[in-house]
Design goal:
homodimer; alpha/beta; Quinone Oxidoreductase, Chain A, domain 1; Rossmann fold; 2 domains; 9 helices
Chain lengths: 342, 342
């Protein structure tokens, strides 16, 4: 490899107050270090933007440490090994890791997992076969525990996780109801993803939509958004219903505490379980997930939806758009112009 | 038995708006019907007042039907069979049933359970050996699932349920923290019930008290009150903490929806489980409960606390006081003046 290889990376320039803006980010040219013993150098093809990254832009303690000002962001990325100093990976291998928001990443080989580009397009390892896919899988099956014949409601259903939750629930014999933020997305849910019913949460009160679409109530609610839809779902839950708390995108840009569900008291009489989870606790289910999800993909039982934004320099724009709901399906940024993807 | 036996019962005269008042209740003299085939006539000695009854005074659907206007209230009561037309019970038997708020109850023998007045004072079957005791037992052990060495916080800790939660948690090797509404109750928690720490929630923000008393966080929160203390507890929960949602007495008299916990989103990153429960779902644990609790009582490991109000006519006053927190331990009304109780 050439000495003094140059690459670009996106730094966090300032912490967003409310909705992030371009000025919170900075594209910086850097010299890529040589990999040390045990490390690999990976050229990124695609990187992921995910809602959870918004939390890491605040300076608050959580299950993942906050991003540091003046340093590169990180997150899921898939690429190809161009230099290896580890027996675990060889040059030419395709890998997924957490070195996103940059052209090249350098890191310990143990931090990367080999992926098979013949099984699915490379960027699928950031979506349906990656963290969002596994989030949908364990969140629905292990936290929500749906039973055939039950009604499953998922918010943010046009997103990377929500769309898979609906499709898996359908495969498990459930009635599926989804919400999204535009008429086009709602049509997509019904026509492409096989939802039994869907509504645009911007059209009116969620409680009213759920009254109409879930007349007999909800057994499992997969919550990606929090706020008004969580309250509405609690109101429509059946006895012994389960709520998988996955995220609360409606609140991520909030600058002051947002009201909690005023009807949480109903959880007593209805014997509801609300359970928060994060996917990294469920690595024991990774093999099951990969087997099931790749099988469903192969058999055409799961539809792969994505929104691709071209160019590392547009990653901030992609992320800002994600929080606004600009995407349908998994949103990724194509970093390597020569990577055709799917 | 005499023909045309007279008795008194308390009717719901009007539905309370906010805090109940005496004018919502009416003491009515009635003629007690003869028990039919399969029924018994029971003379009540003690009746229970419980927070859940407030919900039944509203005209809303819940897990127990609402009380009807112009009819007798009902609820837990313990008494003696004075006339039996069932082989299941004989005259002189002591029984617990749900025919409270009256001098005499008549009902199917199957609706009553025999109790042993030698094992514990009669009114204990309305408290430590009755519904509140079983609520504490299953809510703490089966919903909260504490492990020795963990920190258990219980609100409403001077109440019938909360006081037992703290004592059971202590028996299981946990560190126990309780909240109550007066300095006297706080002293009671520490000195009589063996709580490791306690605070008066009226003294200042609950979040501040929990910061001081649970510096390492909370593993299990047993919620009797909802509102501010629930939010404060969510803020102090450790990762993988469990919240048993038992009741929300701070909200029972509310006339408009009360704010939910603004920090519920923390349940995701902390992987919290919030689970509502009602004791009647857990009858499969009744034998375990009775064996354990009566054993602890016999061995002096559980302290029996109660507040006794004398006279059926004072039952509304007792109930109103219960919602205000006038009681320490189980609040009961002595109906039969000749019943010495404990």
């Amino acid at each position: 490899m050439a000495e003094g290889r140059k690459g670009r990376e996106i730094h966090l320039k300032s912490r967003p107050q409310g909705e992030p803006t371009q000025s919170n980010f900075e594209l910086v040219e850097v010299t890529i270090p040589e990999p040390a013993e045990g490390q690999v150098l990976v050229r990124n093809h695609f990187m992921s933007v995910d809602p959870y990254m918004r939390g890491r832009m605040n300076d608050t303690k959580s299950y993942v440490p906050p991003f540091q000002l003046g340093q590169a962001l990180d997150g899921g990325a898939v690429g190809q090994v161009v230099r290896s100093r580890s027996p675990a990976l060889k040059e030419g291998d395709f890998v997924v890791g957490s070195g996103g928001w940059r052209d090249y990443s350098v890191g310990n080989a143990k931090g990367y997992s080999k992926v098979d580009p013949k099984l699915a397009p490379l960027q699928a390892y950031l979506g349906v076969l990656g963290m969002p896919g596994q989030t949908a899988y364990v969140g629905l099956l292990d936290i929500g525990k749906p039973v055939a014949g039950e009604t499953v409601f998922v918010s943010g259903a046009a997103g990377a996780v929500g769309g898979l939750v609906g499709q898996i629930a359908k495969l498990k014999g459930c009635r599926t109801v989804g919400s999204a933020g535009s008429a086009q997305k709602v049509a997509h849910l019904r026509e492409k993803l096989g939802f039994d019913a869907a509504f645009n949460y911007k059209d009116g009160p969620a409680a009213q939509a759920l009254d109409t679409l879930c007349p007999e109530g909800i057994d499992v609610y997969f919550d990606n958004v929090g706020g008004e839809q969580l309250e509405a779902a609690i109101g429509k839950m059946k006895n012994h219903g389960r709520i998988a708390l996955c995220g609360a995108i409606s609140q991520y840009n909030a600058t002051s505490p947002t009201p909690g569900p005023r009807n949480l008291i109903l959880a007593v009489g209805k014997r509801l379980t609300l359970r928060g989870f994060i996917v990294s606790d469920h690595q024991d289910r990774y093999a099951d997930f990969l087997r099931d999800m790749s099988g469903w993909l192969r058999e055409g039982k799961v539809t792969l939806e994505e929104t691709v934004v071209d160019g590392l320099e547009r990653a901030p724009e992609a992320f800002i758009g994600l929080l606004r709901g600009d995407n349908t399906g998994k949103m990724v940024v194509r970093i390597a112009a020569d990577s055709a993807g799917s």
